[in-house]
Amino acid sequence: MVDNYRVNVTNADGTTLRPDVSPNPIETTASQLTVTGLTEGSAYYFTVQAHNANDWGAASAQAGPLSPLGTLVAKAGPDQTITRAVTTTTVSLTGAGSTPGATYLWQQLGADGQPIGATDPDRMTLSGATTLGPTFVLPLYRFPMTNNALTFRLTVTVDATTRTDTVKVTPVPGDTIAVTRAQWKVGELRVQGTGTVDGAAIRIHSGSMSGPVLGTALVAAGGWQLQLRNAAAPATRPASLWIESTVGHTIGPITVT
Q1: Which of 58, 91, 163, 206 counts the highest number of beta carbons within 10 A?
Q2: Can you tell me whether residue 8 is helix, strand or coil?
Q3: How many domains does the chain have?
Q4: What is the 3-state secondary structure (H, E, C) of 183-250?
């Protein structure tokens, strides 16, 4: 029979007790406990041990990170995964749960955690960036765009006090493409393949994904084909082909026979 509980408030490593929580660990006979004295916005992790006549049991699985909310709250909503399609996709963000009546500002962040640069290929244009519910249009995939997670920061301001929160939107390819034939001879290049999404546009590059575009094709009935003849064909055999779909899938290098 359980006669006591021990709550451990720790750092992320799960073993180092937080020095700002006193006492720590906390012992109680109740099955519910309110932990006080926590610092607003700090990340805390919790484990629980139970005690009976046989001594203390093993610690529970770690819960966290959990951060106490103060009177000013910024909540950027849950992370999202967006599957790319043959058309552009409107993505909605939400700051629901943030402090009402405040000033709001959404910004997209780059890999360095700073506002994203104007020339970044993954830069999105936010509509309603000063509201709780902005949107942006996820475009069709085109290199040098990536499928990396897009990070957006919500800043909530009241008077001179601000709170921030971030959310990640991860685009994922909505199709799979493959090459079944890549052949060159003087005066002709033929590339054929398959695709799982009809209507996807295929772009074929020579040498690398940043290399010149040899041509485009459209997936129809699960297949696509590019055939270049005479002056339109490469004068020499391409070293390799790299291929992208507007629905997000990329493959390469492909050897040309």
Answers
A1: 163
A2: strand
A3: 3
A4: EEECCEEEEEEEECCCCCEEEEEECCCCCCEEEEEECECCEEEEEEEHHHCCCCCCCCEEEEECCCCE
Give bridge partners of residue 165 from the DSSP assignment: 154
- What secondary structure does DSSP assign to 87-153, as a single string? S-EEEE---TTSPTTSEEEEEEE-TTSSBPPTT-TT----BSTTSSS-EEEEPPP-TT---PPEEEE
In a domain, 75, yes or no: no
Residues 99, 167, single domain; the answer is: yes
Series of mean pLDDT values for 10-residue runs along the chain (257 residues): 92 83 90 85 89 92 86 94 98 96 97 96 98 98 98 96 96 98 97 98 97 97 98 95 98 97
Residue 73 lies in a domain: no
Tokens of 9: 């408030």
Q: Are 123 and 108 in contact (CB under 8 A)?
A: yes
SS (H, E, C) 155-176: EEEECCEEEEEEEEEEEECCCC
**Residue 30 sits in the same domain as residue 96:** no
Q: Both 151 and 181 in a single domain? A: no
Quote the domain boundaries for residue 122: 80-172
Whole-model pTM: value is 0.79
